[in-house]
């Protein structure tokens, strides 16, 4: 065999070898978060876990930073199978599944312990199961920490201080209704448009967890921030139903386990980042804690929201979530 023939054999062997080691399943994982945020970093942890523990049989292609559109568009693409994996906020998912309104009820979860009891327990699993009707398979509840309020008009020490402020929110009926109840003028706007909206005065305030406030530099175009901890910013880790069902049981277990690892990584990254974020932005925006009296006023003003969304969430699920949140 001459050198030329040997080269052909070697090239063909290389191609065949690479084909033999090609992934059996290739999935697109889309989200709107910038790559430095806790959940975007956790998505990479998920990818690494899946690819390692599937022995390369599953390949995950991450498309971050709204490359494939906003959260609503990503949900729709996941339903159609154009995207296979996503972590949209439950506030956006509520546009497709009304029971998801639950997680955006204000002041439902007072701390991380309450959050874990509700999201990781019976209530979270029940809600994930309802997504099958939306051609989605719910796997786990991720999240980005508790949301806080910022604005350019005045410090927020109670609901009365929100009167007339143009607040940006998710495209989420629960959140829009909440700010209307507080007397604000809420408007839904895509996450990637918020900085410009604040800069141009189209909106005067917004709410987000610290990681999002820092990564999008909202503190550059806002004067006041109150650490309200008024709602946990919950993401649902979902897959297209057909993509999930295409996996054999052993690989479903790999994906399921990796989602839990990713969820826990996101929470750990969030906890690590939050104290650093406050130190870094202090002096660039006026920061205040919400007092016990201010919190009590917000809780009282929030009661009509629970009444308005009780039937949509279902009374049984709402009561169960409230009991778990209170440690009952």
Task: Report the sheet-strand fraction.
Answer: 15-25%
N-to-C order of helices and strands: HEHEHEHHHEEHEHEHEEHHEHH
Largest sheet: 10 strands, mixed
Oligomer: single chain
CATH architecture: 3-Layer(aba) Sandwich
Report the count of strand segments.
Answer: 10
Q: Please report the distance between the alpha carbons of the first and last residues.
A: 79 Å
Brief characterization of the structure:
It contains 13 helices and ten strands. It is an alpha/beta fold and 328 residues long.
Describe this structure in words.
With 328 residues, the chain is an alpha/beta fold. It has a single domain, classed as Bacterial extracellular solute-binding protein, family 7 (D-Maltodextrin-Binding Protein, domain 2), CATH 3.40.190. Helix content is 48%, strand content 18%. It has helices at residues 3-20, 38-53, 71-80, 90-93, 112-119, 122-130, 173-181, 194-200, 210-215, 241-245, 249-281, 292-313, 315-325, and strands spanning 25-30, 58-63, 85-86, 136-151, 166-169, 185-188, 205-209, 224-227, 232-240, 286-289. Helix 2 (38-53) links the parallel strand 1 and strand 2. The longest helix is centred in the C-terminal third of the chain and has 33 residues, at 249-281. Residues 2-20 have low confidence and may be disordered.
